[in-house]
Amino acid sequence: MKPFRISDFGFRIPGFSPGSLLLCWLSFPRLLCCLCVRLFRSRLSAFGFPIGLRLVGLLWVLTAVPAFGGANLLPNGDFDKGGDKWPANWHCKLTDYMPKEQENAEGVKSYRYICACGHDLGEVKPWCGLICPKCGGFLSGEECGAWYVQNHERVSLIPDGNGYCVKFTLDKSTGENQGVRIMSDLIKVKPAWGYILTFRCKTKGAIARVFAECYRKPKGWKSANWEGPHDKAIGKDERIERIYRGHVNCGSPGTWTAFTKELVAPEKYQFEYISVKPYAYMPGEAWFDDFSIRPMTTAEYEKYMSERKPKDKRFKY
Predict the structure, then answer these.
(1) CATH level 3 topology of 153-315
(2) For the stretch 149-170, what's the b/e string if a residue is b when 16 or more beta carbons lie within 10 angstroms of its beta carbon?
(3) Most-buried pick from 131, 239, 301, 302 (CB within 10 A)?
């Protein structure tokens, strides 16, 4: 039998970077099927069973990785990547803005939007995903002023099993007022589809909630001309608005408890982006871990849609 090389099959041996290891893992089923075909092709052909490119093509398709159902779209949902204090891909240092009225020489009134640190963010109302160029705080797009400028001081990473979880520590003043929250990076998703949010949490004294904040470009969208830093999922001139929210009221579970939420918006409220927002209030502590957002399988989506028959046309699916 003619000697063969890995390069005969269109593959090369990758290095040990994370990206190449992922490529190797995804390619392994296809590589294995090609190796088997190459090894036994000449022998089976001798017995009258020719194996050609059509069979190779069929095996290639059958070993493809499915696009939907199972893949976690949320980076670092288990909080195992990051620095010594805060997890990567999550925003713990937060800020927001308040509007400031101004009047020009002709008496025409307008607004400027001022970050909690005092930086002028411009005359266009800020949206989620922007980062203040002065203080580095992540903006949620809500008129919260200075409520969350010390938020990061109450967030920490702590060991949990073989990895880490995130912990909120709420004193009396914070717990009885604004609470503590963090926000994930925005993730871009396919509109007009369903998603499954899962996570675990536990509390001691505090009350936990988790929000899936869902966004899309506003109708009549035009360039917002933002020149500062921003979430990498959106362009520098891409304005978004919250159109839908998934909400899980976790209560006060004293031990690790798993939660699941289906995210399927009515036709009128289809979204293009999601940011997950764990939140806790009341004095005490709260722990969160193992966040995942995955697309529904076709069967899950069809089952969900078949069970929704709203009478109000605004909530038609």
Answers:
(1) Jelly Rolls (2.60.120)
(2) bebbebbbbeebeeebbbbbbb
(3) 239
